[in-house]
Design brief:
The strands form 2 sheets. Strands 1-4-5-6-7-8-9-10 form an 8-stranded parallel beta barrel, surrounded by 4 helices. About 40% of the residues lie in helices and about 15% in strands. Helix 4 crosses helix 5. The protein has a single domain, classed as TIM Barrel (Alpha-Beta Barrel), CATH 3.20.20.70. By secondary structure, the chain is an alpha/beta fold.
């Protein structure tokens, strides 16, 4: 199967170079949101009144095509927050996922929970941009970055006051976890083929560096799975397509949380 990730990353380098020509780093640093005090996703994931779920706003994907084109950022993200999401994840990649920076800025204006900028970060410029549009956390993907790049980009983000979620897919990629990676996400979806293997999280959980917040990603579509993952040591659960595939993502999230709390005896 075609290596989708390589295609995305190649395009991202071109896209970032073009954006640098349109808006300088100095201009981004003057944006109103750049100076705001960021929220800690690590802290919000550990709040007992929250769910541990990082709920995603995602219009489309390369593997599934259009997921949901009928809902607004405001409708979906405010419901996620209202029903106990610990954080939000907002896609800002336009070409492959149909997202925009404006989606994240809208989510920021309506919600007081941490927001993850979900994108393919390959350059420090994108991290300055993330801060300027109101993100609290950035995603780094181990599959497409060398260990030295992870260290450089995570340190840069940390110094801007942003938290860093490093996404891994194999045990060997755990070697890329560095000091300023705050959260380690295990992606159950193979980014080369986009196939899902839910057991991957449980296999890698014990091997994640002590002190890092563990996040399970992809393939979580059953509240019972969260109970299993919690027992494996996960504190965060990034759920994207499951809610967005529903006609009413807000109601789907409410029902999911209700069932999850029943299972947990809350």
């Amino acid at each position: 199967m075609k290596n989708i990730l390589a295609e995305i990353v190649a395009h991202k380098h071109t896209e970032v170079a073009a954006r640098k020509q349109l808006r300088s780093t100095a201009e981004l640093e003057q944006a109103p949101l750049f100076g705001r005090e960021t929220l800690s996703l690590c802290q919000f994931l550990r709040m007992p009144e929250k769910t541990g779920i990082i709920a995603e706003f995602k219009r489309r994907s390369p593997s599934k095509g259009l997921i949901n084109g009928n809902v607004t950022v405001q409708q979906v993200t405010t419901a996620y927050t209202r029903y106990g999401a610990s954080g939000l994840s907002v896609l800002t990649d336009e070409k492959f996922f149909g997202g925009t920076s404006d989606d994240l800025q809208q989510a920021r204006s309506y919600n007081q929970v941490p927001i993850l900028r979900k994108d393919f970060i390959v350059d420090e410029y994108q991290i300055v941009e993330a801060k300027a549009i109101g993100a609290d956390v950035i995603l780094l993907i181990a599959e497409c970055l060398e260990a030295a790049e992870v260290k450089q980009l995570s340190t840069f983000a940390h110094n801007l006051g942003l938290e860093v979620l490093l996404e891994v897919h194999s045990e060997s990629q755990l070697e890329k976890v560095s000091e300023h990676v705050h959260l380690v996400g295990v992606n159950n979806r193979d980014l080369m083929t986009f196939q899902v293997d839910f057991n991957r999280s449980c296999e890698l959980a014990p091997k994640i560096t002590a002190g890092k917040v563990k996040v399970a990603e992809s393939g979580i579509n059953d509240p019972a799975a969260i109970v299993t993952l919690q027992k494996a040591g996960f504190e965060g659960f990034l759920i994207g397509e499951h809610f967005m595939r529903q006609e009413d993502p807000a109601r789907a999230f409410e029902n999911f949380v209700s069932e999850m709390r029943k299972l947990a005896g809350r």
